[in-house]
């Protein structure tokens, strides 16, 4: 199993380490083989030999651009100028161009896998949980994009599709991940199971032991596709009470799109907290899945907190109870 930490080339993250050798030693200290990398264009890159996987850009609301629904785009963004700022263009080809550049980069550096989010949510929907698109609609269109990106290419990496808790891939209906697998042509396809995102689909969880049991229950429900779970983003987020309370107190959204974006960004990271997963039975859960890749996908404020979170989670993985 290849184990990594998640990282970008954002200067704030890089400044935690004296140099790249310090980063290498940090990974080794916590039993990690390198980095799962989300690359920010224009910044200095992490050395390619440290990168095991590449997390592709995440557009959580892409369906309207992909389907050419200008009316809904304007309702969400306010103007086509902001649409262009957000996506880098105003046509479906903008998505294809951006993802193709990232896939070509992943192939060039020899990444073993890439990660692609399969979900759709607008800012207001993230608060209200009232969605324009169904799981099936999102999965069908995501498969179209993926096939457009991969058909005829000679990529060698695993293409791993990640679950969220919004419409798309969320593992709640076993027919949906099966539909996604059947619809994607690429040979080296699979799933990146994000444990924290999966926990966000159950607002009644009270503790981490319940969280481990819930993930096992979802795996039982999706038994037919379990061999396609090639990777795990490991973390936990038990925030159901916060979400239920928030749905009764939806904030007034700002008029300006970028101010609304800041509102939702802050809210999402209160829901999806990326904290250490230490529930009883965690090591057996990982053994059950037997992934090829495991990423400690933790969100931390500084190196001291990152070390503390990694220590907790790696200790939990060694626990045989």
UniProtKB/TrEMBL annotation:
Protein's UniProt keywords contain Transferase: no
Transmembrane segments: none
Every Xylose isomerase-like TIM barrel domain range: 58-276
SUPFAM superfamilies assigned: Xylose isomerase-like
Keyword Isomerase recorded: yes
Pfam families: AP_endonuc_2
InterPro entries attached to this UniProt entry: Xyl_isomerase-like_sf, Xyl_isomerase-like_TIM-brl
Keywords: Isomerase
GO molecular function, one term: isomerase activity
Listed name of the protein: Xylose isomerase-like TIM barrel
Species whose genome carries this gene: Lactonifactor longoviformis DSM 17459
């Amino acid at each position: 199993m290849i184990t990594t930490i998640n990282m970008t080339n954002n200067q704030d993250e890089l400044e935690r380490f004296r140099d790249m050798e310090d980063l290498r030693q940090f990974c080794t200290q916590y039993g990690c083989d390198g980095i799962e990398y989300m690359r920010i264009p224009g910044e200095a890159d992490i050395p390619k030999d440290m990168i095991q996987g590449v997390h592709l850009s995440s557009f959580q609301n892409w369906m309207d651009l992909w389907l050419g629904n200008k009316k809904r785009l304007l309702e969400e963004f306010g103007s086509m100028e902001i649409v262009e700022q957000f996506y880098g263009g105003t046509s479906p080809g903008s998505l294809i161009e951006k993802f193709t550049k990232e896939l070509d980069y992943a192939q060039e550096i020899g990444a073993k896998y890439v990660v692609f989010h399969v979900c759709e949510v607008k800012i207001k929907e993230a608060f209200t949980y009232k969605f324009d698109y169904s799981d099936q609609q999102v999965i069908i269109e995501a498969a179209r994009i993926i096939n457009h990106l991969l058909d005829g290419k000679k990529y060698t990496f695993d293409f791993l599709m990640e679950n969220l808790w919004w419409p798309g891939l969320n593992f709640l209906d076993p027919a949906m991940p099966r539909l996604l697998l059947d619809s994607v042509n690429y040979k080296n396809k699979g799933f990146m199971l994000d444990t924290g995102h999966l926990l966000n689909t159950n607002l009644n969880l009270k503790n981490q032991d319940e969280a481990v049991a819930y993930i096992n229950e979802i795996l039982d429900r999706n038994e037919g596709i379990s061999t396609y779970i090639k990777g795990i983003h490991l973390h936990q987020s038990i925030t159901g009470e916060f979400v239920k309370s928030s749905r009764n107190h939806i904030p007034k959204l700002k008029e300006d799109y970028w101010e609304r974006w800041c509102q939702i960004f802050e809210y999402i990271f209160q829901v999806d907290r990326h904290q250490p997963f230490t529930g009883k039975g965690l090591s057996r859960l990982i053994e059950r899945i037997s992934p090829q890749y495991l990423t400690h996908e933790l969100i931390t404020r500084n190196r001291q907190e990152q070390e503390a979170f990694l220590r907790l989670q790696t200790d939990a993985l060694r626990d045989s109870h």
